[in-house]
Design a protein that fits this description.
Elements: H1 2-28, E1 30-38, E2 42-45, E3 48-49, H2 50-53, H3 57-73, H4 77-102, H5 108-114, E4 122-129, H6 133-152, H7 176-185
Antiparallel strand pairs: 1-2, 1-3, 1-4
Amino acid sequence: MPETGRRSLVATVVLLVAAAAALWASVAAVWLRPSYDTPFRGQVSVAVEGGEWEPALGPVALLALAGVAAAVATGGWVRRVVGVVLAFAGGWVLVLGARPQLGTGPGIGRVDAVADAPSGGRISDVLVIEPWTLLASVAGLLLLAAGGLLVLRDAAMPRLGARYTAPSRSRRDPDPERELWDSLDAGEDPTEPRH
């Protein structure tokens, strides 16, 4: 049981780091290429990066990295709340990345507001959507999986400092070595027979 919990925690950390990396890559990648009709150069294509189109992706990448620390350092209901927050963020990022490919979400007016339009240019109806938008959706799936692991497998996952917590008094199987140390701590000689 502890080994599967350890593997679940490692898998969660790997998923969160991969999600953060995918989000950073998505922020820097070109998502949209709107075209502008200009008076002197004809039709000019402009690049709109993921960070310009969806500015929230960068902070969600930081949230994923903070989730690594929270997954390792916390336990119990706090870890499950972190899992719910990460899963919610993952679902939101999944939708944000899929919207341009599905043709939903903000229209050409928003593209014109976000894009660095050439001077004197008027936006045309030509809009190329790059496949890099799906990288954000992949990051969203990774966040969803990590959040789900934290919520569902929390009880099996190890906790930071758990080995230093006081043992419970209701042990059924006494540990002979532990009893020797306990008697030494109490100032007794464990080699003398008890009366």
